[in-house]
Specification:
The structure is a homodimer. Chain A contains eleven helices and 13 strands. In chain A, the strands form three sheets. Chain A has a seven-stranded mixed beta sheet with strand order 4-10-9-8-7-5-6, with helices on both faces. In chain A, strands 1-2-3-13 form a four-stranded mixed beta sheet. In chain A, strands 11-12 form a two-stranded antiparallel ribbon. The first copy, chain A, starts with 5 loop residues before the first helix and ends in a 6-residue tail after the last helix. Chain A has two domains: 163 residues, Aspartate Aminotransferase, domain 1 (Alpha-Beta Complex), CATH 3.90.1150; 204 residues, Type I PLP-dependent aspartate aminotransferase-like (Major domain) (Aspartate Aminotransferase, domain 2). Chain A is globular, with a radius of gyration of 22 Å. Helix content of chain A is 38%, strand content 13%. The first copy, chain A, is α/β, with parallel strands linked by helices. Chains A and B meet through helix 1, strand 1, helix 2, helix 3 and strand 4 of A and helix 1, strand 1, helix 2, helix 3 and strand 4 of B.
Chain lengths: 413, 413
């Protein structure tokens, strides 16, 4: 297959004129290897086409949202049908009630739900509700964890105030001693503990959900009458329909959702239990588009589709096929790699990989062979990924591993 | 016409079980008179149908977004066409570059643009960029002005930290002495001044854009090398295509946009000049759905449509017809009212109206006669409002004013 990127380069040159740095945020290709396409023209199922017409099996799924694959017929039909009635109106549609009821029915700890646009809206709302519920200020959160782009949690604090991160104490994810030390430091001001369901920091080995740690966090929150906030924005729905700690038997007081809940339509959600309902009604949460009916219709259709069949099992089967394939290829080529975290959210890092040079080379080669991979962020599987798609990715990485084994990290001159 | 709200009441009862307080944010009817419908089933042009089938001429336009009317054929066609290609993908579509170029071409002070979801995303980004550009912290903003729902600007601070509002100094909108005092207080730490294009606070008489004040703010910013940030989220496009201070000849350094730029699709924008481009490239701004192509396609179609004809003149003509009608009705019925602000964003308040009792009565009567009005928030006109629609509103308010004149504020027993 011939790969080209002329159109992309033209667009990037135009973009540099009118967009600071040429692009911003998590979809900027600035931290990716040269040649990674910035602009895409089309997406369907698990396939993605860039503006030069190159086709990829997309292992990023739009950085998570695409759980049922792009252009899912039932989701898009529901969205279109609702769009013909109304989307942003002077008030919500009744399907907002249907959707809140669905969340409450499906998520054990949820007695209520509110909807917003960004994952950050949901995590920020959770902090405010924890503080309003407890009338305390201190929030504990894990060092290096990503919870959004607001001043209180941004990983790149340029332009933000130190004060915006006041009354936050960090602990090491999964380390109960570190957590307990932070709890002692918070004293009688502990409002809540904010955690992701497993450590899924970029550029790090991932962990699996850890029952002992989850139970420990739950017990400490209960003991100190603080709220346990689960940030399920990134992982939510991929591990379990009812929340990523459902299978561990640990119920948070609040959980934040986003990304995949409406299969790519802009919707996030914050759900909570009875204890924080009154505070939730006092915290001011709003946005011009938060009451849009179309993303809610898409979410309802997504829930319907996920209820139809054991989709998690499919994601695990495909993720296992991919992980096994990569392990076999790496071993055969004598390349040291680590694959960590739940298989539904693949993460592959190379051993001794200074500044991700091997990873960069590996994803660059795979890209040119039709697989869109990420060098240091967890990837995502969708229900649209079938065995043939995984095998197509493995064909691409067979080439990529061979190149790494032969040339190391340096691109050919 | 017979008006009913049985279905709405049923839905509100269900909503109270699964949504804190039954609803939240600016679209909650809790602060509106009893009987105001919370849920809507359909919208088209400037008409809105609630879940009981009652039809209204909608004077809120979804609290602003609906500038071309609901279900605008060209906007929705562009959105549908893009939806068939891709919306949330692993990267943006090339139309993101087209749209940034459009903003830069159309807005005099814009050398670049970034896009987000909430108006709050844009105003929050503006503050960070002002601070990063100047390496200073203090932001001046008007007392009582609405700039979003984030902790630094929320009008209802339950659950937020005082620290989130650090390094902010308030002044009285339109009062140069008050502004100058705030500037003196900021000393050498003045990063920026954040202003709406006119005073459009809820529950207050509005002002008109004030050239003298705008020039004063501009001069002081220039003198102190601080950035002038115009919050055009609410008013943007309704006063002028190029920004609400375009006709005053005053250019901000940054301006925040939202609501109507994609005619109801979820999109906000922050544009700025060359001076703050580098800082903008360093401030971390992102969200899972910020790169959606469908709202950008809708924005391009909205811009096309607005370029096609002198739409501001139409809004002014319809707004003037409405204002003249209300003035005549109020005078004839001997009811004291004040109509303030630009006619495109109608605001009517009653004289001596303790706790908005008259306004509540007036909008309640009008509602039952088919006009959806707001008792204390500015309303919005769209290009879909035609003379017949305005006259329909005036028919409804003729009844409402007659009731006020006869019974005063108290609802009939």
């Amino acid at each position: 297959m011939s790969w080209s990127n002329e159109r992309n380069l033209e667009l990037q040159a135009r973009a540099r004129q009118v967009i600071p740095g040429g692009m911003y945020g998590h979809q900027s290709v600035r931290p990716l290897p040269d040649g990674f396409p910035q602009f895409f023209s089309r997406a369907e199922g698990c396939r993605l086409w860039d503006v030069d017409g190159n086709e990829y099996v997309d292992m990023m799924c739009a950085y998570g949202p695409m759980l049922l694959g792009y252009q899912h017929p039932k989701v898009e039909a529901a969205a279109s049908e609702q769009a013909r009635l109304g989307d942003t109106m002077t008030g919500p549609s009744e399907i907002m009630v249907d959707l809140a009821e669905r969340f409450v029915a499906r998520i054990e700890h949820a007695d209520w739900a509110v909807f917003s646009k960004n994952g950050t809206d949901a995590t920020s709302g959770a902090l405010a509700i924890a503080r309003a519920t407890t009338d305390r200020r201190t929030i504990l959160l894990a060092e290096g964890a990503y919870h959004g782009a607001a001043p209180w949690c941004t990983p790149f604090p340029a332009g933000t105030l130190e004060e915006a991160r006041a009354h936050q104490i960090e602990f090491s994810y999964g380390d109960t001693e570190s957590l307990d030390a932070a709890i002692r430091q918070a004293g009688d001001d502990l409002a809540g503990i904010l955690v992701s369901p497993f450590r899924h920091d970029a550029a790090h080995d991932q962990t699996e959900p850890d029952a002992a740690f989850a139970h420990h966090v739950r017990e400490r929150c209960t003991e100190h009458e603080a709220l346990l906030i689960l940030d399920d924005v990134r992982a939510g729905l991929r591990l379990s329909f009812g929340g990523s700690w459902e299978s561990l038997g640990v119920e948070p007081d609040l959980s934040a959702w986003g990304k995949s809940i409406a299969n790519g339509h802009a919707l996030s959600a914050l759900v909570g239990n009875e204890r924080c309902r009154e505070a939730a009604s006092k915290v001011f949460m709003t946005g011009s588009f938060w009451f849009q009916a179309v993303p809610m219709a898409a979410a309802l259709a997504t829930f319907d589709e996920l209820s139809r069949e054991p989709y998690v099992e499919h994601l695990i089967a495909m993720g296992t096929r991919l992980r096994d394939g990569w392990r076999e290829q790496a071993e055969r080529h004598g390349v040291g790699i680590r694959q960590t975290g739940p298989v539904q959210m693949p993460m592959l890092l190379f051993d001794n990989d200074v500044r991700f040079r091997r990873a960069y080379r590996w994803v660059s080669e795979a890209l040119r062979c039709g697989a869109y991979l990420h060098p240091w962020h967890n990837m995502f599987l969708s229900t649209a990924h079938q065995e043939a798609d995984i095998d197509r990715v493995l064909e691409a990485t067979e080439t990529a591993f061979a190149v790494i084994a032969k040339d190391g990290s340096e691109p050919a001159a």
